[in-house]
Amino acid sequence: MIFEEDINQVIRELKPSGIRKFFDIAATRKNVVSLGVGEPDFITPWHIREAAIYAIEKGRTFYTGNKGLLDLRKGICAYYQRRFHVTYDAEKNVIVTVGGSEAIDLALRTILKEGEEVILPTPAYVAYASIIAMAQGVVKEVEMKEETQFKLTPEALLAAITPKTKAIILNFPGNPTGGIMTHEDYAKIVPILKEHGIYVVTDEIYAELTYEGKHSSIAEFEEIKDQTIVINGFSKAYSMTGYRIGYLLAHEKLINMMLKVHQYTIMCAPTVSQFAAIEAVNNGDEDIQRMFLSFKQRRNYLVKELNRIGLKTHMPEGAFYVFPSIQVCNMSSEEFCNRLLDEENLALVPGNAFGDAGEGYVRISYAYSLEQLKTAIGKLEHFLGNHITK
Ligand SMILES: Cc1ncc(COP(=O)(O)O)c(C=O)c1O
Fold this sequence. Notes:
By secondary structure, the chain is α/β, with parallel strands linked by helices. The chain has 2 domains: 4-44 and 287-387, Alpha-Beta Complex (Aspartate Aminotransferase, domain 1), CATH 3.90.1150; 46-283, Aspartate Aminotransferase, domain 2. The chain contains 14 helices and 12 strands. Helix 3 (46-57) runs antiparallel to helix 11 (271-283), helix 4 packs parallel to helix 11 (271-283) and helix 5 runs parallel beside helix 6. It starts with 8 loop residues before the first helix and ends with a helix. The site of pyridoxal-5'-phosphate has 13 residues, from helix 5.
């Protein structure tokens, strides 16, 4: 017999992801068009797959060092320098992880003590709150509003700081809103983070999908670089979700602490995938550009069409999601998505899956072909025809 009370209370109380819950329902129906998943639809570029095959052929099938292959760490540091002008040392400042997912877990588990607060700007990626809880931290949500382009404002940040504040999670470009922070936006919050000694966990997994201007990393600000942990990975930029490769960039002391957690729980990221990642990071800039252009075209199409059919949609500056307001329908985001699924066989993600601040919105992923996006727009237009109340 398994008794619920035998199970760790934190785990018992974790809520299942609002995305999973919804897609479990969608999976039970036939002919559903889904724009729910945040995974690029491109097969990994051939030269990267070939590097993985070659590694297997050559018998490179053993553990690597805990931090990951040095050539990969060197490639990652050269990449951060080349693309975002931030300098890290391959020997001291990098751990290769099992996706950005493990990197988030390592960072939070390492820095948090029981009861310390983590400021979480929301709407936010669904995993953060649960990972904070598993690391014994306390989530302190801060709402990012559409009126301020889903950015984190200095006023909102200041209002969230308490004596228990330990860290903040930043995710720009962001899932689910597509919001970004420019260098100038960061310049307004950096003095606050510095003054209060707040650790900055910056998840830059969508950095390469920045449509207006260039991605800015908060690690560029030397005055807070020591208290900053950068998270990034290969899943989104190179369409390598299944390889499970991500990384952490941080001060040597933090790296050494996080490495303890990594070495006892994971040992090392998958070796064959690390070889594929070396090829991607050294020779994949053109692939990034090709996929970027395709995403940008889809974004432009989707935002134009959503506004045309009556769903007010902010033009997202990054990632591959749009976050339209559903206010015209006078339904909660969950009711909207349930009825859309029932009546039109179209699956979107209710905004409340990303925190209370997401209520009144839905998330649409455009990591799907233009054909699928067109079909979805047709379905949405039909649905709105029956349900627009305002
Ligand atoms: C904001 C954000 N961070 C991290 C991840 C995790 O990605 P992975 O573990 O594949 O690197 C995702 C995946 O959807 C994400 O949206």
